[in-house]
Amino acid sequence: MTHHFSFAIGIVKFIFFILFFLSLQANEFDAEYWQYFTLKNFEKGPYRLYSSGEFRMDRDASTLYHYRITENFAYKATSWLDLEAHYSFIRTKPIETRMFHHTHRLELEINPSLQLNDRVVIKWRNRLQIQKRQNNPRIEYIFRHRIMLVFPLENWGKLTEIKCYDELFYHCHSHHFTQNRFFPIEMTFKFKKTYLNIFIMLRRFANQATRTRLSSVCLGSEVGF
Question: Which residues cross the membrane (predicted)?
């Protein structure tokens, strides 16, 4: 119990350190809030169908600028390899405009994993994102690569996992890395029929219209059913 309490205090200190550091950079960072939802529709053997959605708020988490609905298909090819395909309809408001635009997006994933031991699992998500934006004749191809460390927990009550991961975005048409998302911590809580993920994200991304680099800190959560 003492070890658990000390570990929890360490997590709280780490979170407050991040928030304090970002407050010193207030002129450079925006604050966002992201909320995800996941609903399992069908599961049999290695096959799974599920729906998901999200909304995002920026400008110190005060203004809605993005929402999405997605249908997902997942296939567990082996114990260490998952294959997925997703289709999304997205409404988003670019920074430089006041109007929402829509995007159709197809995602194809190859996701291997490696269990190092009972305490550490490495997950590598490789996603090809194919999207068509409103008023843009070009079809965009984006590679997204995410490396995640998963630390399973036992005898921690509802807290079952802690994760740390980083994701890079590469746009094929511009031949540039256009976004980086670093999640220093994500905590998973499992209940009888639901789960809850809570995370902090540091984001660096390119404004496609002005060709400038922007930064934000994001607090968010995911609720799964």
Answer: 6-24
